[in-house]
């Protein structure tokens, strides 16, 4: 489901030569560099720090807090999908060329809760597919 970011990497993602997708963050890249490159390309970035998250409840709580989800977020898989299909919580008045969700410490979460991580990946992949053909696509990097 999740694959490596194809060449030319982040630059290609942000200029549109690499299709938006659900990718592994290249090990040579840092969160600060990703955020900087995204900002230069007029992409909005939301960072999801997953350090210490070991289950579904923790993952959904972290999503709600770190991504500043709306009050109606129900802390379940369906509500996560709803938030990722309706990015109004993330948008502001200015137009972005794209949206990037950067999940940090994904491998630790995946090891602690493999089934929950697979479900979350499926939801992320569905959201990325949903926004793929829009003016402002969604991409996700799992670091």
TrEMBL record:
Residue stretches making up the Barstar (barnase inhibitor) domain: 44-141
Gene3D superfamilies: Barstar-like (3.30.370.10)
InterPro entries given in the database record: Barstar, Barstar-like_sf
SUPFAM superfamilies documented for this protein: Barstar-related (SSF52038)
Family: Belongs to the barstar family.
Name by which UniProt lists this protein: Barstar (barnase inhibitor) domain-containing protein
Source organism (scientific name): Streptomyces blastmyceticus
